[in-house]
Amino acid sequence: MQEARAASALNHPSIITIYDIDHDGGSDFIAMEFVPGNTLDQLIPPQGMKVNDALRYAIQIADALAAAHAAGIVHRDLKPANIIVGDAGNVKVLDFGLAKLDEDLPPTELDNTRTLVKQAHTEEGTIMGTASYMSPEQAEGRKVDARSDIFSFGATLYEMLAGRRAFHGESKIATLSAILRSEPEPLAKLTEGAPRELHRLVQRCLKKDPNERAHSMADLRIALKEIKEDSESGTLTAAAPPPPRRSRTGLWIAAALATLAVASAAAYIYSSRQTTPQVPLQATVLTSYQGQEASPTLSPDGSQVAFLWDGGQQGNYDIYVKVLGPGKPLRLTTDPARHSSPSWSPDGRTIAFIRGESLFTISPLGGSEREIAPGLFRLPSRTFGLRGYSVSWSPDGRWILASTRENETTPAALFLIAVETGEKRRLTSPPAGIIGDLEAAISPDGRTLVFSRRLISGTAGITDCDLYTMPLGSDYSAAGAPAQITFDHALTQGIAWTHDSREFVYSSNRGGSSALWRISLSNPSAPVKLTVGDQGFDPVISRQGNRLAFGQQIPGDTNIWRIHLTDPASPASPIIASTRLDHSPRYSPDGEKIAFNSERSGRTEIWICDADGGNPVQLTNEGNSGSPSWSPDGKQIAFDHVTEGKWQIYTVNARGGKPRQLTKEPGSHTRPSWSHDGQWIYSSGPGGIQKTAIAGGNVVQLITDGGSNPLESEDGKTIYYTAADSLRSAGADGKGAVKLIDGLMGMPLALTRGGIYYRSSGAGSSIHFYSFDTKRSKLIVKPDKPFDIGQSVSPDGQGLLYSLRDAPATSDLMLVDPFR
Asked: What secondary structure does DSSP assign to 681-704, as a single string?
């Protein structure tokens, strides 16, 4: 029911609208939109459709599926009979999510839309529905995702062009066998005049291996549009039919030549994939003050820059402005509240910014401030990361574009705020259950909005963001649905349009470290990296003057320290150190080894060293791996790792080897820890605490209060975790949760038989120990440097590991002049 309701909320022109789902008189019913027209299977002629008609329908189908996939919904039963073509040629896709609702029900002869049942039957009919459109993984009863829909889409498009099914047999079993083992007859042999590019696209969709199929429905939609435009312009070449059969000698010669050609082509493709297009830029230092400078915004003529600067006070940002070149900056704000997102107006007269909960403007010459929208940002922004909310201007200067949330249960959305009246007008409506739409910018011609959408909240500095574009009307209202244009699931920090509204520059860590990338709207799938250094964020382009400014991070240094708990007079000392980030330590059960996170190899990986910090060895080699946790016998390590944009739990032999993925559920799963019998792994998942059997299987939801950092007690009867800045405990079944103490930072805990070591929240964070006997806490260590992630107690209770930021990160502002 939840999935059907989610599908009904998609609100897409090519998806059937569900008005009601209810129960009456002993029957369940769904009331949906009536569309006059015919299903696609009734419209496909025996010889196949005309290419332009097929493309026109396919683009709409792809657009519908792209919107559904972006909302986390997989159709599972796409076929011509589930697609209606209206009398005006508009497409409507039916039955989103309905197939999944029936998975646990026994099959009947009336099940025309069923795709899969879980019960095992020996007779034909175990897999119900129209088998011809199932993906191989669906036919085998394996778990499916959006790539299964891509296969079904390819089978549907094949039938539209050829007038016959790609896979068919005399029985369902024969059809399923063809899907798993056979290739469809080449389209070039069955169609006339269809472009070879279209044939290649269909072949890519029908790959047996999901990893070899097209990347996404959004990519397919773009490719189909380009094929349609080129087809209508006459620039495409029709695919030639397969050549006649040759003699055996001719085949051997052809095979030899083909092998040589394939080897050459493979070498070319491999080398081209290894090289990201790059454009070298010459950047000079714009500001280099002590501390952090960030969020630059250039005056329209490019002669001045306004920016955030903490004055060397580590995070207490104010807004400053200065003329490019020598000279001191002018401080515009002095309020102790947090400032963020300065943005220069198009006429150069004011600078908009956020302070605390409200939106303000101020003259670049200083003076009094004007509050535009009080309480607009009244909800905490820490979920969004260090950058918080963001603002920018409409080209005419009448509106300020802001990202904010209306209440705690809704994702962040983009709103237009009228500068004169403070009127608020919604611009985007992200699906429920995600962080929301964050940074955004309207093109100079006012026709296109580009913004980042974050699906989950990341850990260890990694987030799940991708870019979307949306057409705008003359009044900046939405003139179409958002379209996803990047699929990197990477951190986005700033978006800046070029003058001609054809391209934009943005910051992303898609290639590893944060750098600047340039995207053309005509070819969004091929971003160009701007090589302006190892770090680049917050890009801004002046409206005149051809100048680009951006921030450049100078990394800090985090190391792992140890304190002797049994000898308070003994000073703490660094035990694991490098010039990069080292954090998240975990003692092995026997106390002889330490697993930890390190970026010393250039990527975040799991490392293992001796208890004294010696002999460090890298354990993982995939990047974006964190939160190591030893199994009770010390033979395995569980950790979290980004897979297809989601954090999932993996295990790996502590001596090395290939990691095994444990969780494969939707949403992210982080901060793993083992049960004391070694049979389960707890994790922080969507909504709270979950556990997964080490032998595999579905995730079991235990606690739904948004908790994180779970640890099981030695007797296996209690789970301790953090939630809403508090330490909590619950039974092993997740029931009976109680709050123990407040004032915690949501960081990993260190559990002993007698209590828990935790990190306090607020200014001057410190490590405390909560005693189970006394129900009281005592201070353990309060360092003069900021903490980083993780803490761990040695099995003998004598040593405590924690990580400190020994050298803080800093940042400067850079300038590219001219920028072309």
From this structure: EEEEETTEEEEEETT----EEEE-
Q: Tell me which residue has tokens 């939707």.
A: 666
Give yes or no for a contact between 414 and 472, defined as CB atoms under 8 angstroms apart. Answer: no
What is the rounded CA–CA span in Å between residue 207 and residue 179? 10
Mean pLDDT of 21-32: 83
Q: What pLDDT, on a 0 to 100 scale, did the predictor assign at position 234?
A: 54
Using alpha carbons only, give the angle 304, 309, 311 rounded to the nearest 5 degrees.
Answer: 125
Q: In 395-410, which positions are buried (b, 16+ CB within 10 angstroms) versus exposed (e)? A: beeebbbbbbbeeeee
List 305's β-bridge partners, or say none: 298, 322
Q: Nearest to residue 224, comparing CAs of 326, 327, 153, 289?
A: 153
pLDDT at position 206 is 93
* Contact between 767 and 786 (Cβ < 8 Å): no
Catalytic residue ranges:
77
The pLDDT-based confidence of 212 (bands split at 50, 70, 90) is confident
Length of the chain: 820
Peptide bond into 818 cis (omega under 30): yes
Q: Which residues partner with 359 through β-bridges?
A: 354, 373
Q: Which residue has the higher pLDDT, 363 or 508?
A: 363
Helix (H) or strand (E) holding 146: helix 146-162
On whether the CB atoms of residues 113 and 100 are closer than 8 A, the answer is no
152-203 residue pLDDT tens: 999 999 999 999 999 987 777 778 888 888 888 888 778 776 788 888 899 8
CA distance to 242, 351, 361, 790, per residue, from 334 (Å): 75, 15, 14, 35
As a whole number of angstroms, the distance between CA 498 and CA 500 comes to 6
Instruction: Kindly report the backbone phi and psi dihedral angles of residue 390, in degrees, each rounded to the nearest multiple of 5, phi listed first.
Output: -140, 155
| Average pLDDT score over residue span 50-77 | 88
Find the DSSP H helices in 210-288: 217-233, 248-274
Nearest 5°: phi and psi at 270?
-60, -45
Q: Which two tokens stand for residue 232?
A: 């209508």
* DSSP code at position 786: -
d(CA 287, CA 711): 46
